[in-house]
Design brief:
alpha/beta, Aspartate Aminotransferase, domain 2, 7-stranded mixed beta sheet, 3-stranded antiparallel beta sheet
Length: 422
């Protein structure tokens, strides 16, 4: 049976249906029950047992959806380096998304609370239209002169306090962190870096070197290069100092920074997320970054803020995580949310620090700041503003947190509720 809203008998010419028509094909025995057109996924196996695969009749490959999905997963494992992994042991096949939903090929809709690169939601029409329009016009590298890269970097710099007024555009958070560290090393002439434990910063050489998350790399702390020095994770819930005792993390980090300087290896940079991302959405203790930043600068170093996961309005009350700490870093690294899934990252610093990079040669990224990337960046900023998504993070995140805190009051198994905004 073939149906398109009205029943069409098998063998009947359906060419007259025209482009865009929805065609449903079902093959069953004459005396068998008619399967519903749509069923819940948990009932699918039972109904599939009462139907046959119509694919051969339509000139399509035979085989059940489940067989084809397993074959696709096996092909992924054969060609796509397995160290890249995938979510879930038996992952659904996700081919579509809309706003905050992901849609599987089995027809199931999922609320997406995992994704960290699409702050506007999936398939946002404003982004799609902007990208399509720009791709029809031009996409090239940023050494050519065009308006969108100027407009985007002006907008981006305008979101940051003085003296952060100069922008480098790249393709990812890993590249942004790598460049941020190179800027600090070049400006100070020092290569020692202080980093937080339990942190993840990326997969390039430099960003991986300062990544200390044991969850991402069980050997992280034992395999850091000699120029990386770590300080205790200022985790007020799971760390060494908990609750009110978390104020001790700041002075301890300052002591490490002072000791490095005393041993004639003053840090050229301190890098840290301004609000813990991978380590559990935990806020740093109040005043922590102010103490650490002051110590680094006292010895001539620069401070690098990793805003890749926590910046761009997601905290709700603050556009940048460093605002929550009441500090201004020397270098800010950002990506993920900037492009709503399009590969886009940036490093923002002062003109003085940026100009010192000349001592290391030129900087160039083939697609960082391309016309399409710049248009995507502008469109994301416009949409964040026009749809009040930072305000939405306050409202929805606040409601979620209040309800979770209410559960924590009722159930002792809940140890803490962390986070701000979304």
């Amino acid at each position: 049976m073939v149906s398109t809203g009205a029943t069409v008998q098998a063998g009947e010419d359906i060419a007259h249906l025209g482009s865009g028509a929805s065609v449903h094909v079902a093959l069953r025995s004459a005396d068998g029950p008619a399967a519903p057109r749509l069923v819940r996924p948990e009932y699918a196996a039972g109904w599939l047992a009462l139907t046959a695969d119509p694919a051969p009749l339509l000139g399509l490959p035979a085989g059940s959806d489940r067989t084809r999905e397993r074959d696709l997963l096996d092909r992924r494992g054969a060609a796509f380096a397995t160290v890249q992994e995938h979510y879930y042991a038996n992952p659904p096949r996700i081919e579509r998304g809309w706003r905050h939903h992901l849609l599987s090929t089995e027809g199931r809709s999922y609320l997406d609370i995992v994704n960290n690169v699409t702050p506007l939601g999936h398939a946002h029409p404003r982004v799609e239209e902007a990208v399509s329009r720009q791709l029809r016009r031009l996409n090239t590298n940023s050494r050519f002169h065009y308006a969108s890269v100027v407009e985007f970097t002006e907008r981006l710099a305008g979101l940051l306090p003085d003296p952060l007024d100069t922008v480098f555009l790249v393709n990812s958070g890993s590249e942004a962190v790598d460049l941020g560290l190179r800027l600090a090393m070049g400006a100070t002439g020092r290569h020692d870096v202080v980093a937080l434990r339990e942190a993840y910063h990326g997969w390039t050489y430099a960003s991986d070197a300062v990544s200390t998350s044991l969850q991402d790399n069980p050997n992280a702390l034992a395999t850091r290069p000699s120029w990386v020095h770590t300080v205790d994770s200022p985790n007020s819930y799971r760390g060494r100092h908990r609750g009110a005792d978390a104020v001790r993390y700041g002075p301890e980090a300052v002591a490490v920074i002072d000791d490095l300087a005393a041993s004639d290896r003053p840090a050229g940079a301190f890098i840290g997320e301004t609000f813990y991302g991978n380590a559990g959405g935990v806020a740093l203790p109040d005043g922590y970054l102010a103490e650490v930043y002051a110590a680094v600068r006292r010895h001539g170093g620069l401070t690098v803020a990793d805003e890749v996961q926590v910046g761009y309005g997601r905290l709700g009350h603050w556009f940048w995580g460093f605002e929550q700490q009441g500090v201004v870093p020397d270098i800010v690294c950002v990506a993920k949310a900037m492009g709503n899934g399009h590969p886009l990252g940036a490093v923002i610093t002062s003109k003085d620090v940026a100009d010192r990079y000349r001592d290391q040669g030129y900087f160039f990224s083939s697609t960082g700041g391309s016309p399409v990337s710049s248009v995507v960046g502008l469109t994301v900023l416009d949409t964040l503003r026009d749809e009040d998504l930072q305000g939405n993070a306050v409202r929805v995140g606040g409601r979620l947190k209040r309800r979770l805190e209410a559960l924590a009051d009722r159930y002792g198994i809940i140890g803490a509720v962390h986070g701000t905004g979304l």
